User: Which sequence fits this backbone?
């Protein structure tokens, strides 16, 4: 009699656990983290939003959101857990330049705002969203940083004797002008 009750009890416990696990699994299968398909291109100095959100619409307020660099070792960009931002282990170069959109977290939007873009920000970012002991998913966001004015300015200098056109970049132009100045100084005899 006791034995039967014990076995029934165990069976009930097993069934409950099975149900619980399959429920957790189905929950986990439903959720996914999504982000931009194409690389993000932005200009140095500007602010950039790196998109990352949970689909379907699920609150991430109680979850752990971790943004880190994939191509730079030990480079924690932003960490949110236990309902707050944790910057103890944040990489120095990102200090004071990152934030999440707190209102948006309720809608599962864990997008990162990165301010005053630097050339060194270019690279691959991982957005990892985790619900402790139950589920996690991540995406990779590629960021390309462009520097305005870094491309040499092409100017037309003159027609050469063969009827062609001399095209020089402004950098080259400056070098030529400097060389010419040096040459004149030597000629004038006042070169120090
Ligand atoms: C997400 O859920 C919140 C709260 O349930 C709701 O206010 C919001 O409109 C939803 N957003 C989308 C895109 O479904
Ligand atoms: C997430 O929040 C950012 C900042 O408010 C917004 O630009 C973006 O459109 C949001 N993404 C989604 C999927 O709601």
Assistant:
């Amino acid at each position: 009699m006791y034995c039967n009750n014990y076995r029934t009890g165990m069976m009930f416990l097993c069934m409950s656990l099975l149900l619980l696990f399959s429920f957790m699994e189905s929950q986990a299968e439903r959720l996914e983290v999504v982000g931009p398909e194409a690389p993000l291109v932005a200009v140095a100095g500007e602010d950039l939003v790196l998109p990352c959100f949970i689909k379907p619409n699920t609150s991430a307020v109680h979850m752990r959101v971790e943004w880190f660099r994939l191509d730079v070792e030990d480079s924690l960009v932003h960490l949110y857990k236990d309902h707050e931002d944790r910057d103890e282990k944040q990489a120095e170069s990102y200090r004071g330049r990152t934030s999440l959109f707190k209102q948006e977290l309720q809608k599962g939007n864990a997008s990162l705002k990165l301010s005053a873009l630097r050339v060194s920000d270019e690279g691959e970012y991982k957005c990892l969203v985790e619900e402790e002991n139950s589920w996690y998913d991540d995406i990779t966001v590629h960021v390309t940083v462009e520097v305005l004015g870094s491309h040499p300015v092409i100017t037309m200098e003159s027609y050469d004797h063969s009827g062609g056109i001399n095209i020089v970049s402004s950098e080259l132009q400056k070098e030529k002008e400097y060389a010419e100045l040096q040459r004149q100084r030597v000629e004038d005899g006042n070169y120090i």
Observations:
- The CA atoms of residues 156 and 162 lie 15 Å apart.
